[in-house]
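Hey, I'm writing a tutorial for new members on how sequence and structure tokens pair up, and I'd like a real worked example in the thread rather than a made-up one. If someone can provide the structure for the chain below, I'll link this post from the tutorial.
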Amino acid sequence: MTGKITKIDSKGYGFISSKELPFTRIFFHWTYLLQDTLKFPELKTGMKVEFEPKEVDGKGTRAIKVKVIQ
């Protein structure tokens, strides 16, 4: 799945929006970044990413295996 980073927080998390999951802010934690992509401090709002959505009981959709794409 693809999307764009909509928010980055210095505490190590952010949010992604995707046309494939409309009206959903998808949470991700820095530990879900793949090793072969940018490091968390290098991420910026508006960057395009690939990720896998994962449903977490009581918390909604989370993005795992997050990777920045050009």
